[in-house]
């Protein structure tokens, strides 16, 4: 099986951006944070080297807005709890998936 990640510039760019410390999250402007959230939510598509269509982006925007809002809140409240932007997004997404008590 070919390793597509080596020839996938969008995935490599996403990976480079999300490996930065979580404190870098708050240094980004809102549009950049939303773009990262959309890319995170569409990561399976990106990993397969498929383009992200405007329709996909539009469909994911409500979830990306929620994810950005929650990630920004947690990054402000406890930045030391997250080792990277990817970790921050992963943990916030896990909170959304937790069953309600």
Characterization of this structure:
This protein has about 100 residues and is mainly α. Helices cover about 65% and strands about 0% of the residues. The protein contains five helices and no strands. The protein has helices spanning about 10-20, 30-40, 45, 55-75, 85-95. α4 packs across α5. It is globular, with a radius of gyration of 14 Å. The protein starts with 8 loop residues before the first helix and ends with a helix.
Helix amount? 55-70%
Quote the average pLDDT: 89
Task: Write down the Rg.
Answer: 14 Å
Terminal Cα separation, in Å?
42 Å
Shape: globular
The description of the largest β-sheet is: none
Structural class computed from helices and strand pairing: mainly alpha
Order of helices and strands: HHHHH
Uncertain residue segments: none
- Put simply, the count of helices is 5
Strand content: under 5%
Number of strands: 0
Give descriptors for this structure.
mainly alpha; 0% strand; 101 residues; 5 helices
Give a concise summary:
This protein is mainly alpha-helical and 101 residues long.
Question: What is the fold's blueprint, element by element?
Answer:
Elements: H1 9-18, H2 30-41, H3 43-47, H4 54-77, H5 85-97
